[in-house]
Design goal:
By secondary structure, the chain is α/β, with parallel strands linked by helices. The chain has two domains: 3-53 and 165-334, Rossmann fold; 54-163, 3-Layer(aba) Sandwich (Rossmann fold). The protein is built from twelve helices and ten strands. It has helices spanning 22-28, 54-67, 82-93, 111-115, 118-124, 138-151, 166-186, 201-213, 228-245, 273-286, 295-307, 331-334; strands at residues 18-20, 37-42, 72-78, 97-104, 128-133, 156-158, 192-197, 219-223, 257-260, 315-320. The strands form two sheets. The protein has a six-stranded mixed β-sheet, with helices on both faces. α3 runs parallel beside α5 (118-124). It is globular and about 65 Å long.
Length: 338
């Protein structure tokens, strides 16, 4: 697949590592030989301001922004957004300004949540931040900020939350090709990919890429925010749009999109003891640092489903979306629970 024709700007550290998780695999083994063999695709290692899954999307989005002579990136996210951090870093790397709208989505008043972690890094990277209440129409806010930039003589380029449009999702269509090539080189047959699904771009890009190449590997998205019906609809729509850019929209079918949204807990960005146990387990079995919002909830789901026998005998790849920088925003909540 000729991804270069979309003019991505290359700065991610690729290919990211693809490696087994023997400690987690042993922990999930059940009597009688049940449980999965777990591998990890280390997209926490993409290299941009600590890495994370948004870096792949930003390669394509920055390419489009620069092709359109933009000088200011405008985007949004929750206060501890990993996407915002990586976007601010990309803007700094290419000499662009960065205007950020942060949504107080969780309602937390904790100083560490509102000032540490990703927020501290956003400021260090030189982004201009503004915070709006939870439930704000973020698309409208982005439009307002973009208009202000334009009125001041700037050339804004608006990036949706999570970098999740068809251009951004191309990063994960390309990742699908990378992952399959790594598995083929190792002689490894992948039975399933498990990852967090939120703004939908990572999930949709993987589905589109696998469909276009005919890889026939199911992707299970563990939801972090929306209910199952809405999440699957968002992912399917974006996967079709992404595959259309690659010239094969018809190869994405509705049955390819599966989200399990039973592990969201009490809401986006809100953690519970099962998430904390998932963070501890990944760290203490294989030295893998997850985040409380996305990869931690995805691991919570993987563990619960494994314990229920859902992956018995399978080789499961956990696509690690990064975000450990956000751990420092949750110090208060994690205090005494580790």
């Amino acid at each position: 697949m000729h991804f270069a024709r979309f003019n991505p700007i290359r700065f991610a550290h690729l290919p990211t590592p693809f490696e087994p998780l023997p400690g987690l695999t042993e922990h999930l083994a059940r009597p009688g030989g049940g449980g999965p063999a777990v591998w990890v695709k280390r997209d926490d290692c993409t290299g941009l301001a600590g890495g994370g899954n948004k870096t792949r999307k930003l390669e394509f989005l920055l390419g489009d922004a620069l092709a359109n002579d933009a000088d200011t990136l405008v985007t949004q996210g929750a206060i501890q957004s990993n996407h915002v951090r990586q976007t601010a870093a990309a803007a700094a790397k290419f000499g662009m300004k960065c205007e950020i709208v942060l949504e107080a989505r969780t309602g937390s008043n904790a100083v560490d949540y509102n000032r540490s972690g990703n927020v501290l890094l956003d400021e260090l990277l030189g982004a201009t931040l503004r915070t709006v209440p939870g439930g704000t129409d973020m698309s409208l806010e982005l439009a307002k900020v973009a208009a202000q930039v334009a009125d001041a003589g700037g050339r804004p380029y608006v990036i949706p939350g999570g970098g999740s449009n068809a251009i951004g999702a191309l990063g994960y269509a390309e990742c699908a090709f990378e992952l399959v090539a790594q598995a083929n080189e190792l002689g490894l047959e992948i039975d399933r990919i498990v990852t967090a699904t939120g703004s939908a771009g990572t999930h949709a890009g993987l589905v589109a890429g696998l469909a276009v190449m005919g890889a026939d590997i199911p992707v299970l998205g563990i939801g972090v925010r929306a209910p199952k019906k809405a999440q699957e609809a968002n992912v399917f729509k974006l996967a079709v749009e992404t595959a259309a850019l690659l010239g094969h929209a018809e190869r994405v079918t509705r049955d390819m999109v599966v989200a399990d949204c039973d592990y969201v807990g009490t809401g986006y960005g809100l953690i519970d003891q099962a998430v904390i146990e998932a963070l501890k387990l990944a760290a203490r079995t294989d030295g893998i640092l997850l985040d409380p919002v996305y990869s931690g909830k995805a691991m919570k789901g993987l563990i619960a489903l494994s314990n229920a026998g859902a992956f018995d005998g399978e080789t499961v790849v956990f696509l690690h979306t990064g975000g450990a920088q956000g751990l420092f925003g949750y110090q208060t909540e994690l205090e005494g629970k580790l």
